[in-house]
Amino acid sequence: MKALIVDDNNINLKVASKMLEKEGLQVDTVLSGKECLEKVKNSNYDIIFMDIMMPEMDGKETFSKLQEIEGFNTPVVTLTADTEESKEEYLTKYHFNGYLSKPLRIEELKKVLNKIKTP
């Protein structure tokens, strides 16, 4: 599986990358929503992990723009430390395919990966 991680924090990118690589995924990383859109136009991913709180273009806006790309159907999992909105809001209101809170925990990551692999 090939994953893209979108987060404006290099430390978060490194931590998430290491966790996903240990689970056997090939990982690319980008620091912004704009970079994410460019990567997705030029590469195919099996899953995208998207930070919600980013400058310029947040994760919700980036996800919305991804959905405008013809043929886009890659599962997108939100990464957030934001407690203002509930997990259910991210999954039902914004239509993310999964939800992980920060700091990431390997058990939760494995659950999301298993769900995405076997819908």
Quick rundown:
The protein has 119 residues and is α/β, with parallel strands linked by helices.
Order of helices and strands: EHEHEHEHEH
Q: How far is the first residue's CA from the last residue's CA?
A: 15 Å
> Can you identify the CATH superfamily?
Response regulator
Q: Based on the structure given, which CATH architecture is correct?
A: 3-Layer(aba) Sandwich
CATH class value: Alpha Beta
Q: State which percent range the strand residues make up.
A: 15-25%
Tell me, what's the shape? globular
Overview of this protein structure:
This protein starts with a strand and ends with a helix. The longest helix has 13 residues. The radius of gyration is 13 Å and the shape is globular. With 119 residues, the protein is of the alpha/beta class. It has one domain: Rossmann fold, CATH 3.40.50. Strand 1, helix 1 and strand 2 form a beta-alpha-beta unit. Helix content is 43%, strand content 20%. A 5-stranded parallel sheet has the order 2-1-3-4-5, with helices on both faces.
